[in-house]
C-alpha cells in the first residue's frame, strides 16, 4: 500500500468516547509503522481505535523507509504487538480480533467476510483515481501527506510536487486497469452500494460495528476532509453512517 491520500479529522480526537465501548487489556506495547495516508494502515487504526487498544505510531519515510529497515517485510502497515511483528491489514485485524474474543470465539458471518473482501478488492481501488483526479486535488493530497510524514524540508518539496505529479499519472493508469470511466461516479456508486448493504441497520454489524464497518470506515477516513470525501458525503447517503462510525470509533492513538 503506497501513498493514498488523507486529511486530518480534527474532530475525532475531541469526541467523548461512548461508555459501552469494548476495551482490550490484552496488549501492553503496540506500535504501528505506517504512512498516515495509506488506506490499509487506516483500516488497522480504525480497529485499534474502536477496541480502545492504545498504540504508538511510527511514520515511515516513503522514500528511504529507514524506520522499517529492521523488518524483512518492506510494506506498511507493520504492527508490532509486544514485540511480535504482524503484517497485512486484513490479517492483522483477524489476529487481533481472535485474541480479543478468546473467551467467546466470535466467528464472522459470511456477510461480514464478503464486505471486507469488497473493501480490499474494490473500494480501495476507487480511492486513488479520486484523490489524484486533478492536479489541484493531487497537490491537496500530498500537502496533507507531507505535513504528517517524517520528511526534511527538501524531501517535503520533492515528495509534494514529484509525488503529486507521479500519482496524478498513476491514477490515470489505475482508472484504466480497474475500468473506471468517471472517478466521482465510481466513488458515489461505491458509497451507495455500501449504504444499500446496511439495509436500514445502524451498522453492517447491527447495533455495533463489525470488522466490515471498521474496514470501510478506515479506508474512507483519510479522504473525508479532502475534496473527494466532501463530495462523497454531499452527493450520497453515506454521511449518517459515517458520522455514527466517527463517534463510536474515536481514537486511542498515544500522542508523542
From TrEMBL:
Residues 1-22 are annotated as: Disordered. Pathway: Lipid metabolism; prostaglandin biosynthesis. It holds the Pfam family GST_N_3. The keyword Transmembrane applies. It is an enzyme of class 5 (isomerase). Residues 28-104 form the GST N-terminal domain. Keywords: Fatty acid biosynthesis, Fatty acid metabolism, Isomerase, Lipid biosynthesis, Lipid metabolism, Membrane, Prostaglandin biosynthesis, Prostaglandin metabolism, Transmembrane, Transmembrane helix. It is found in: Endomembrane system. It comes from the Eukaryota. Its EC number is 5.3.99.3. GO terms for molecular function: prostaglandin-E synthase activity. This is Prostaglandin E synthase 2. PANTHER family: MICROSOMAL PROSTAGLANDIN E SYNTHASE-2 (PTHR12782), PROSTAGLANDIN E SYNTHASE 2 (PTHR12782:SF11). It is a single-pass membrane protein. InterPro entries: GLR_AS, Glutathione-S-Trfase_C_sf, Glutathione_S-Trfase, Glutathione_S-Trfase_N, GST_C, PGES2, PGES2_C, Thioredoxin-like_sf. GO terms for biological process: prostaglandin biosynthetic process. GO terms for cellular component: endomembrane system; mitochondrion. Belongs to the GST superfamily. It catalyses: prostaglandin H2 = (12S)-hydroxy-(5Z,8E,10E)-heptadecatrienoate + malonaldehyde; prostaglandin H2 = prostaglandin E2. It comes from Citrus sinensis. PROSITE patterns: GLUTAREDOXIN_1 (PS00195), GLUTAREDOXIN_2 (PS51354), GST_NTER (PS50404).
Amino acid at each position: 500500500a503506497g501513498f493514498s491520500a488523507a486529511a486530518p479529522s480534527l474532530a475525532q480526537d475531541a469526541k467523548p468516547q461512548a461508555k459501552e465501548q469494548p476495551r482490550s487489556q490484552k496488549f501492553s506495547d503496540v506500535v504501528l509503522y505506517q504512512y498516515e495516508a495509506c488506506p490499509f494502515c487506516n483500516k488497522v487504526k480504525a480497529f485499534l481505535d474502536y477496541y480502545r487498544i492504545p498504540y504508538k505510531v511510527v511514520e515511515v519515510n516513503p522514500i528511504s523507509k529507514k524506520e522499517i529497515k529492521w523488518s524483512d517485510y518492506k510494506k506498511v502497515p507493520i504492527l508490532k504487538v509486544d514485540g511480535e511483528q504482524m503484517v497485512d491489514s486484513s490479517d492483522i485485524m483477524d489476529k487481533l480480533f481472535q485474541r480479543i474474543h478468546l473467551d467467546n470465539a466470535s466467528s464472522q458471518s459470511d456477510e461480514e467476510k464478503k464486505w471486507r473482501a469488497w473493501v480490499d478488492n474494490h473500494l480501495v481501488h476507487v480511492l486513488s483515481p479520486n484523490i489524484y483526479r486533478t492536479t489541484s486535488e493531487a497537490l491537496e493530497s500530498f500537502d496533507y501527506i507531507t505535513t504528517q510524514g517524517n520528511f526534511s524540508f527538501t524531501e517535503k518539496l520533492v515528495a509534494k510536487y514529484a509525488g503529486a505529479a507521479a500519482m496524478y499519472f498513476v491514477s490515470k493508469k489505475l482508472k484504466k486497469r480497474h475500468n473506471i470511466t468517471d472517478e466521482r461516479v465510481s466513488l458515489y456508486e461505491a458509497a451507495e452500494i455500501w449504504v444499500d448493504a446496511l439495509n436500514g441497520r445502524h451498522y453492517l454489524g447491527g447495533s455495533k460495528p463489525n470488522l466490515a464497518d471498521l474496514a470501510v470506515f478506515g479506508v474512507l477516513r483519510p479522504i473525508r476532509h479532502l475534496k473527494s470525501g466532501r463530495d462523497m458525503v454531499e452527493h450520497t447517503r453515506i454521511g449518517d453512517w459515517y458520522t455514527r462510525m466517527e463517534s463510536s470509533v474515536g481514537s486511542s492513538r498515544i500522542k508523542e
